[in-house]
Amino acid sequence: MLPQLFENDRNYLLGDPELEIIGDREKLAQWRHRMKGPAFYRLGRKIVYRGSDLNEWVAANRVDPSEQA
Predict the structure, then answer these.
(1) Which superkingdom (predicted)?
(2) 10 Å Cβ neighbour count for 53?
(3) pLDDT in tens, the chain (69 residues)
(4) How many alpha carbons fall within 13 Å on the CB side of residue 47?
(5) 64 vs 9, 22, 32, 68, 69, CA distance in Å?
């Protein structure tokens, strides 16, 4: 099992280097526009990601090649 990549009780803002592990600013913007990717909050012009939401999204996107057979 993958350890949690993000701190559950932390909020991450666009520009935080930790977010680069899942995508750059442009990729995250595309996902938000398409209503894909991790859950987020829009606070005015700020985008905020909760660490617990990021960890849930990472876990939900796990691919196990042995299950593909």
Answers:
(1) Bacteria
(2) 18
(3) 567 999 999 999 999 999 999 999 999 999 999 999 999 999 999 999 999 999 999 999 988 888 876
(4) 14
(5) 28, 18, 26, 7, 10
